[in-house]
Each structure stands twice: as structure tokens, then as C-alpha cells.
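Students often ask what a holo structure prediction actually looks like on paper. The answer is less mysterious than it sounds. You provide the chain, you provide the ligand, and the output is a string of C-alpha cells encoding the 3D arrangement of the protein together with FE2/S2 (inorganic) cluster.
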Amino acid sequence: MSTSQTEWHRVGPVEELKQTELQEVRVEGKAVALSYREGKFGAVGGHCLHAGGPLGHGRLDGDRIVCPWHGWKVNRCDGLTGSGQAGVEVYELKEEDGALWISTAPPTPRKPVNHEPHPLARPVKREPGPIRVVGISTTGMDAEEPRYSTSEALLEEALKHAAAQGCETKLIKLNELKFKHCEGYYSKSAKACTWPCTLTQMDDEDNLEPVYEAFVHWADVSLIATPIRWGVASSLYFKMAERMNCVQNQITINDRVLIQNKVASFIITGGQDNVQGVAGQMLTFFSELGFTFPQFPYVAHSRGWSAEDMENNIKYVQQSEHLRQGACELVDRAVAKAKTLLESSECKTKIGRGGRKAGGGAVDAR
Ligand code: FES
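The corresponding C-alpha cells follow.
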């Protein structure tokens, strides 16, 4: 509702507005975070500097508005962040005839955060070079006192084989990375789940970056190895999987497929059964991220439900030429699939340059 003096917008009765510490109001279609504390109103731009979170739906911590998405803070009156270097817009207010009015003149301008984008945010472009294979070991163990892991041993075998075939290889043990559980920002709003992951950007102690780097940028083939724990993949596997929400979510909110022309395959071992259940979950999950699979995309081993003599399980895997060969053949199939995908993507790119629309979306897969 506006008065005939169009430069002021009537927000509402002062006494009523005083009852709410922080709220969102709309002025000429724009969201404004209106606050009232210790006898004073404040009105600042309603979109957070970080990723546009709705400041008016946050909370006050003293005179600072805490964004409801990831907790960034700005002053409720001058709009500035703690450093004072950046800030949201500030609106002029006046009280008249028992009502609060907000100026419709342009507010003081927003001062964006001035820092380099996170390295993971760079465009996805395959760098030239041989096929690159990352192995992700998801078994949990004491890194100081490592034990023999059947899934990790087969993964190492596969990587050794891939290297001997001329691939670049890398092994990442989740067990050696310190990383946080997913905070579930997605549950607040789809747009609150950012790429790169907000935890990766905001928390120097969080160390999942090598996994994101490998999945999204570096590797053509991702080999994920897991033990079977109570009929499912390892807890570290699921901890990592939850953190991949930011990759999948880019498809949902930005139509941006970060994973293209990449292959995933799996090594699954356990003292007890449910191999197909574990493989089914992994296949579904990695397909949702955008990976493709070779024919027969996993190798697995289990001696069955009643085989509790785990020392014999270790012995079996250590002595099994068949399993080692299976792991090597798996990586061969995955590498062959990756080559086919890359060749086909190069072909499409060339056709695209010739005047037809190239395949693929946001990713340059040359
Ligand atoms: S803290 Fe506000 S959008 Fe991230």
C-alpha cells in the first residue's frame, strides 16, 4: 500500500510492527529484512550476501541478523558484515502518524563480498592427458594401526593394474580425511544447498575437497570400494554420499550437470551377504549424480551369512587370483567405457563446431 507520495511506502502500524523482532516485508516487490530491537527499527536488503538466503526469516543475535541458511551475519541497521567490507542494502525509515514508512528511493547499494571464487567452482573442462582413475576406499579403520581391508586391497590391485595400462591413478582413503556430516541445508531450501558445498567453502577443517575435485574435475573413472556392514555399504560411504547432494542438486536447481562423460564402478566385499542390495544402492546413487557404467559395473565377494570366521575371509581374498583378476577386468571395462564416452564427446564437439548444436550441457568435455 503506498501513499500519494510515492517515495515512501507505508509498512504498517508502529505498535504492531514492534511486536516482531525480525520479519520480511516487501517493498515494491523487493524483500526487506525489517527488525526492531531496543527502541529502534532497522531495514536492510532481504537477500544474504552469501547465497541469497532470506534474511528476514533469520534471527537476531544482538544487533546482527543471522541468515537462516548457513549462519552468515549482517548488522540489522547498517547492513554490514563483521569485517565492514561487505554489506547488504540499507533502507531509510520514518515514523509518522503512528505508522512506519520505508523509503522507496534506491537504498544504499549492496557491497558484495570480494573474494576469489572457490577453486572447485571453476568450469568443468577435461584437461588433456591419459585416462584418469580415482579409487575411493570407504572402509573405516584406525589410520594409525591399519588393518587388512579386503575391499581396499582389491581396489589397490585395480589401481595398480590401471597404472600399468597407462592410466593416471589416485587413491583416496575416506578414513584419512576429516570431513563433516552433511548439514542438510537442502532441507531448508533447495537453493541453500550450494556448489561448491557450503561446508567446504566455509570450514577450513573440512577436508572432503579432494573427493569433489576427483569426482567432478579430475577423474574419468571413479572406482568406489566398500565393505558390507549390516547389509549395506560402510558408514563412511554414506557420509560421503550425503555430501554429494550439492553435486546432484545443481541439476535440480540450475540444470547444470557437473558429472558428464564419467564412469563409476564398484568393489564390494563382506563377510556377510547382500551384495546385490549394496550394489543396487550404489548404482542408483551414482546414476543420480550423472555417472555412467560399464557392462557388469561391480565386482563383489562374500562367503555368505554364516561365515563369521573373518580371518579366513581375509585369507580367501588374499589368495584369490580370481578376485584380483576380477578387479583388474573391472577397471579395464570402466576405462574402455570412459574412452568411448570421451571419443563420442569429442566427435559431438567437432560436429558442434561445424554448425550443429553440440551434445552435453554446461560442461566442456573436450
Ligand atoms: S549464510 Fe546466507 S545464504 Fe548462506
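Residues 168 and 259 are 19 Å apart (CA to CA).
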